[in-house]
Amino acid sequence: MGGSTTRLTAGRGRCARLDKVGEAFRSRSSYIQSKVNKYGSDLVAGTNKKYEGCHIVGHQFGGPPEEINMVAMLEEVNQNPRRSTMESYKKFEQDVAANPDGFNKLVIDFQYPDPVDPTKLTKTERVPTKFEAAWTDANGVMKDRSFENIPPQPKGD
Questions:
Q1: Is residue 77 within 8 Å of 52, Cβ to Cβ?
Q2: Rounded Cα–Cα distance for residues 122 and 127 (Å)
Q3: Which residues sit opposite 17 in a β-bridge?
Q4: Sign of torsion, CA 96 56 106 133?
Q5: pLDDT tens digits along 59-109
Q6: What residues contact 44, with CB distance under 8 A and at least 6 apart?
């Protein structure tokens, strides 16, 4: 997120790299965000949870507005409400923005469920179950953070 190129790996032909776009090309597309958040609607049916269409690389870091830069992310992961116990991607973005030199060679790896038919992904198969960020800090130490992206199961299930 801090450099001119952010590498994203997602497997099965998904995005491998995003190039930073200039200020004039940065925008939000409510249509694309709405389309992407619906991928997870079946996963949270009957619960008080919801998915949002979220930028992988926020526009403040030069991320493009296209669908290639969007994933369905649990609201708790994306927004970090106080009641949540889940790791916050928003907090991670804030950490990167506050200290970009501390996030060198940043790679974000998305894990998806195995598709029944890879040529015809269902909506829920387009929702990452987890994503992991790895980078080298300013002292050359490898760091990582993991983000679960499936609703926590109620106790007793």
A1: no
A2: 9
A3: 7
A4: positive
A5: 677 777 677 788 899 998 888 767 777 788 888 888 888 888 898 888 888
A6: 50, 51, 151
